[in-house]
Amino acid sequence: MIEPRVALVGAGWVVRQVWAPLLVQQQAQIVSVIDPQADAAGAFPALAPAPRWHRCMSDQALHGCNLALICSPNVHHVHQALRAMDQGLHVILEKPACLSLAEAECLIQRSRASATELLVSAAASHRSDVRALVAAVAGGAIGTLHCLDISWRRQRGIPRPGSWFTQAGQALAGSGADLGWHLLEVALQVLDYPLVEAALYHHVAAPGDAGEHQASWRADQAPATEAPIEVESQSFSCLKVEGGPLIRMSTAWASHQERDATRITLYGSAGELHLHTTFGFSQNRVAQPSLTLTVDGRTTPRAFAAEDNVAPYRAFLRQHLATLGSSPQAREGEYRKLRSLASAMSALYPHLSSSGAAPSVQ
Questions:
Q1: What global pTM score does this model have?
Q2: Residues 130-162 pLDDT 10s
Q3: Can you say how many angstroms the Cα of residue 164 is from the centroid of all Cα atoms in its chain?
Q4: Which of 112, 167, 194, 223 could form a disulfide with 161 if both were Cys (CB 3.0 to 4.6 A apart)?
């Protein structure tokens, strides 16, 4: 096991509130913080020694680090990951890791050439309720899968209007890539990470009063009065995977429902599994999460352990930091997962990958 010496690329809410504290818990040293925002310099006052602050990624910013956690705006993910791997750093990429299959192949090739780990953050698949769902499918509880219905719809959950999350040039895509990546992480895992062949989709613009639908739990500053939402607020899609069933997906940063809710229903030849919960950090949550199995008209609950919202992130780090750089065989599984998820993004956002050009390193 190597001692992680981390470059945090991006110092947004999830880094400050989730990733950084968990890295410290796992005995990692945060060496460098890379973020252009001036307040990033003092974002981690409790850390000793204090990390260096850099406005942009450079050789100096990565010096002394062996792991980069990349949580920057989506448009930077690929070229920053490539540069970090070129410097010999292992990489953890926040979602969406990339938005085209061509970008995924470029990342995979660089990981192989540099003998570095390329990990996609995977909180959803480390949830206790999702692990119970996956185990039930693997145990044959519902037989042959026919269709997967996956949805994550918030009542008020638009990331701060005017922030990079809502700018097309920085985020590239909206709720389908943000919330949808987590949902597809689960659905494609159940199917053993096939490639997505095609998709029908309908991306819906944000409501006119987007500021009234801001995500309150993020403690963001008040939105700009006229800040536009340039990416989709809702997305509806149907995806076809290679040799497999259909995936029907719905995401919403803002909707008319009472609670922010995540629903996953798997339809099989021998039964149906239904998970009703809330992914993420919203406090407007489903009060009693449940996982149920229905067979021949009879519905029975399936047990899973209670946990806090941060537990899946903690489990992800605990698993991967313990083996960082020590298991070349495990990299192939990560590559398979990345290809599968990237193929879904390619199908949902073909305009982002139509050129087919490999990304440049900046």
A1: 0.94
A2: 999 999 999 999 999 999 999 999 999 898 888
A3: 16
A4: 223
